[in-house]
Description:
By secondary structure, the protein is mainly alpha-helical. It has a single domain (3-145), classed as Arc Repressor Mutant, subunit A (Orthogonal Bundle), CATH 1.10.10. Helices cover 72% and strands 8% of the residues. The chain has six helices and three strands. A three-stranded antiparallel beta sheet has the order 1-3-2. The protein is globular and about 60 Å long. The chain starts with a helix and ends with a helix.
Amino acid sequence: xxxxxxxxxxxxxxxxxxxxxxxxxxxxxxxxxxxxxxxxxxxxxxxxxxxxxxxxxxxxxxxxxxxxxxxxxxxxxxxxxxxxxxxxxxxxxxxxxxxxxxxxxxxxxxxxxxxxxxxxxxxxxxxxxxxxxxxxxxxxxxxxxxxx
Length: 148
């Protein structure tokens, strides 16, 4: 296959995976409504849980929103007892956000619900199909690593 054929095949695969990723996330997002939180709040909480303690500015950058938007999201997370503000021990002027035990539990429970939801159709696949999916997952992990 020539360069043009490779480019066409790569583009077609990218379009297929892009569509699948969107539908996968939409389907799993339904599970998030059970947590009683919006997608943006859960996403911000996830960054704090896995990347915290973190400043509000760094959180806004990670979530690709403006600081005023993140301020409102964080206020809601604080009101729900999911995150708390702490002064940086090295520089008292810096405030970092840290997930509370409740915030960590909410995120863990949401992840567990999404994983269970996704495991159901995977369990319905044949052993051979699950093996193909396992192999494709390893390849897709390399593709995703190339996006970073």
